[in-house]
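Dig into this one:

. . .
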Amino acid sequence: MRAGFLYKIEEGSQEIKATPFRERINISAAAVQPVNQPDFAATWLFDPVPLPEPRKGPGFLLLTAGAGPAMPASLPCEVVDVTRAPQDLAAQYSILRRYLFELRTDLELPLLLLIDDRSRANKIYAEMPPADMLQEDLRTLQAGRSAELSLPFPGRYYTRPHRNYFKLGSAFYWAGYPDQAIPYLEETVRTSPDNWKALLALARIHYEGERWKVSLEHFQRVLDIRPNHADAMLGAGEVSLKLNDLPAAEKFLRKAVEIDPKSADAANQLGLACARQNRNAEAKQWFEKAIAIHRDHTGAINNLAVLYAELGQSNDAIAAFRYGIEVAPEDDELYLNLGRLYVQMGDREKARDLMRQLLAKKPGDPVATRALRELDSR
């Protein structure tokens, strides 16, 4: 056998077939110019992607910066000039555009999206296409055929590809848009009902938005998956307190302390639950336990001081407030509550000195400024 040939040998046969390699092609040397930019083209999305805010569909959404291209009058289209919209709108669509594809890029306007009746983008356009193409795309969307056009050729997946909606939700949350993160986290849970991290994030977002019942539902779903999750147990207890369901709150919080005995937040919240039931001695013990775990836990310090004040133990309340101010000198609430106590005791001068002390720490603080003005006017 000679080099430069492909040989075919068949078992049981004496024949050996030789096929010469194709003739070598010499390629002349030339400088290579790399392209390190995503090549963007009109794209059907395999998984439709929720918009960061609700829009009416099915139809088109055109984002522009000033005057944009004209859309055919026969097509349903909402045109949004981001230079005239709230500033956050452009920031939110910048996040959407950055995380829409794996090759991340900045938002470039104009941007045209085909959206469905669930306010989800189904196709994104790199430039304004002809009117007949837009009309055909809208018909395709309405016929429910958009997913099949998102793939370059027919076939089926043994493991269906899916979009990482959790990553999108996290991007919105950490950019300071928790409510805009909700539709992406909900998509995560819809496709992966056992994703407890997404459920926990939803619970916290709804808690921050004071949507107590919805928050509690999500905390409980986390606990259905991870029964001993300390943060979810604590969250369920805090929400139950907000809903004034004291027996449920105490049950959740005692379990949270049992799971994590070093949780100062759980001890503090349990103290609140006891105080709300007039079990003041027990409440005091839990507040003290929280402070023993974290000496600068301002919530527990303030709660203990308020408890002393309500029990008529003014000197103990003053000592607790003073301790809190010493370990957490930037906490407004400690100054303000101690100031109110001084006023109740008839010592307005000490209240004034306290507000001046706060203003020295935080010049221009509006609450302290207003409180000092009220004290000086009387």
